[in-house]
Amino acid sequence: MLTRPQGPVDECGRRIIAARKKPPRPSCAPKVPAHIVDECEKSYKAADEKKVKTTNVDTPGEQQKYAIALLEHLFTFLPPNATVAALYDIGCVVDRSLELYNILPVDIHQRLIFAISAMHTYGHQWACQIVYNPRLREGLGLTDGEGVERLWSRLRKLIPITRSSAVSTCMFPPHHASHDRSQ
Ligand SMILES: [Zn+2]
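Above: the input record for the complex with zinc ion. Below: its predicted structure, written as tokens.
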């Protein structure tokens, strides 16, 4: 799994904001009508804002920087002719941003396609599902983008075990043990 330090992510966020201040590409032909993607984005925000209250992450609109920074990082490891299919919960929204604005270098953008992970497509508008459902997206075969979810589901049995390895429980027993030894 790839992760990015916060610095490059914030830098990517600043580039996105700067690109959005410029006029959109005149040649952009939307895959899905703009009002449909707006509806997808609205329903995602409504679901995600509940999480924002509890996890204190950035606002949903700013979250594109995480996906885009990660994709940029991924491309640094790939040969120059490699193509990438990104399956993302809000693939339609990010794809629209990248189509409209000059956010990614052209050589990366041309080698990147977006789809929405199979189970998440059902939360999207019907017109969006037709374009972004991985089963209907050319080149994806039987990929459904749910591999990580499947892994988490299988690892679910470990939750009770890992609870006992939380920082507090890891730190205090050794502390008490050393304290007891000194007496
Ligand atoms: Zn959508």
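Notes for the reader.
The CA atoms of residues 56 and 124 lie 25 Å apart.
Residues 6-144 form one domain.
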